[in-house]
Amino acid sequence: MVRIYSQEEIEKIAASGGILANVLKSVAKEAKIGVSLKDLDNLAFKLTKEAGADPAFLGYRPRGAEKSYSASICSSLNDVVVHGLPTSYKLKNGDIFKIDFGVKYQGFYSDSAITIAIGKISKEADNLINATKIALDEAICMAQPGNHLGDIGWIIEKIAKKFKVKVIKNLTGHGIGKNLHEEPTIYNFGEKGTGLELKPGMVLAIEPMFSTGTDQIIQKKDESWATRDRSLSAHFEHTIAIRESGSSVLTNYI
Ligand code: MF3
Ligand code: CO
């Protein structure tokens, strides 16, 4: 079932998303050479709690994982696409660093991710990050009543081709709101005009994930997912609501 959220409910998801955006911004600012992933995780936890909210991933068991997640942020480096655990690793010059973060506030969830260049990165990496960001922006433009889920996947795939990078096929976006993951599944590829028709009140977490090499992923011992050929990956995500006309991003800075 794909939920249709009321205006009041969307406002609550936006309140959750506002907290998320503020915390993510502060954490991203600290993501510099020499800073450990654990320090960034601790900062995210502290700021979220101070805002009266809870980190949504902490204690959550994602599909295909044996253990529940033990941190506030997902901190995925270079070839790791998602679910990277914050360790004592210190960020290095040239790292492609992804922070994925979820917030639960007054019963409502929001989810967002960014990719950050640490120090000086290669041209190839820069192109990858740029492509993924543009794909999310374009997908959000597509997310309008009357359009279909396939339109979102189609535009994301089109941008990947344009920038000569690969869509990671086995990871998807999702509905969100009363739960972190709800229907529908949002593929990062697809055909125009196919799939579920988008309606006002739907709340979606759109999250393109691209790589410079393969579209295949493998699960590592720590249950994170990495590209099979160890090529670089990038990820951006926003939680959005479909409106009467167009859509609005609910995980923006206030
Ligand atoms: N942010 C992920 C998603 O978009 C969820 C991470 S769940 C965790 O679906 F448990 F791994 F943190
Ligand atoms: Co998500």
Label this structure with key terms.
single chain; five-stranded antiparallel beta sheet; binds 2-amino-4-trifluoromethylsulfanyl-butyric acid; binds cobalt (II) ion; alpha+beta; 4 helices; 28% helix; 254 residues; Creatine Amidinohydrolase; globular; four-stranded antiparallel beta sheet
Structure characterization notes:
Helix 1 (7-30) runs antiparallel to helix 2 and helix 3 (123-142) runs antiparallel to helix 4 (149-162). The chain contains 4 helices and 15 strands. The protein is globular and about 45 Å long. It has helices at 7-30, 37-50, 123-142, 149-162; strands at 54-55, 73-77, 80-82, 96-105, 108-117, 166-167, 173-175, 182-186, 203-206, 209-211, 217-219, 225-227, 233-235, 238-242, 247-249. The strands form 4 sheets. The chain has a 5-stranded antiparallel sheet with strand order 8-7-9-14-15. It has 254 residues and is of the alpha+beta class. Cobalt (II) ion binds next to loops.
- How do the strands of the widest beta sheet line up side by side? 8-7-9-14-15
Strand proportion, as a percent range, falls in 25-35%
CATH class: Alpha Beta
- What is the helix content? 25-40%
Are any ligands bound, and if so which? 2-amino-4-trifluoromethylsulfanyl-butyric acid, cobalt (II) ion
Specify the overall morphology: globular
Number of domains: 1
Number of helices: 4
Q: Quickly give the CATH architecture.
A: Alpha-Beta Complex
